[in-house]
Amino acid sequence: MNPHPVAVQASLIPKKGSSEDECEDSFCIDRDLSFGNQRLGPVAVAISDGATESMFAKKWARMITRHAADSSRCIPDGFTGSGDNFRHFIRQIMDRWESWVSSYVNQRVASGRPLRWYEEAKLASGAFATLLAVHFEEAPEGRWHAAALGDSCLFQIRGQRVISQFPVQSSADFGVSPDLLGSKADLDTVCERTYFGRGSFTCGDEFFLMTDALAAWFTYAVENATPSQIEEVLDKVRIFSHAENRSVFESWLSSMIISGRLRNDDITLIRIYISE
Q: What InterPro entries does the annotation carry (predicted)?
């Protein structure tokens, strides 16, 4: 299978009433893939939704996504199952977090601002975030495989149909307490709770990656739509994925939140389109 051009668009929008700095979603795309048309060699994409109740959730989500994209080069089969490579991947993230925390605490002490008791308690409990990491490759045929912990989702579109959805399978399955990757979690527990998915792709396919609030809306919309309405939903998401349409996306999100049809939360949307 010869490599095909791939177009990638990404949009990240903080929850209504929050600033960009307060956004706790994060995404990362393989460093060799820039936005626009590129040849599709091995490509890794990761998104993460930091849990607000934990300290430094944004930092943890960012660390997860960057390490997932980087690690895909070294351990391309790390997202295929809970074997040694995946365990090594998770262990490395946790080690990086501990190193960062130690450095942060030392900096606070050196600057005369040691942690207060409530900060120590929150930091000791760790940081939490969802994980969705996807690896695409075209040799010898178009394949994708993914690892997920929590309710950030991947949708594969062919024509005007959703042919794959991972890891949450229906709108009824979105809850308020998804499984999360904790910076101090037991490694065996993380592996047990992580879902692994795989599939094939061909030219003309597209993939949407979304954090939970948008994924829940999208799943419900597709479940309850007629064929013509599904086409409208897909076109809407395609438009929203373009950074230049951010103001339109923000306006739509605001109206959906006000109407109660979408939960007010940070939003990440990534679209990957594989052309001929």
A: PPM-type-like_dom_sf, PPM-type_phosphatase-like_dom
pTM of the predicted protein model? 0.91
- Taking a C-beta distance cutoff of 8 angstroms, is the pair 83, 70 a contact? no
Q: Is 262 within 8 Å of 11 (Cβ atoms)?
A: no
Q: Annotate 97-108 with DSSP letters as a single string.
A: HHHHHHHHHHHH
Contact criterion met (CB below 8 Å) for 143 and 60: no
Instruction: State in words which class domain 5-274 has.
Output: alpha beta
The pLDDT tens digits of the residues spanning 112-164 come to: 999 998 888 888 889 999 999 998 887 667 889 999 999 999 999 998 899 99
Residue extents of the structural domains in the chain: 5-274
- Tokens (6 digits) for 213: 């609030």
Among 28, 16, 32, smallest CA distance to 250 is for: 16
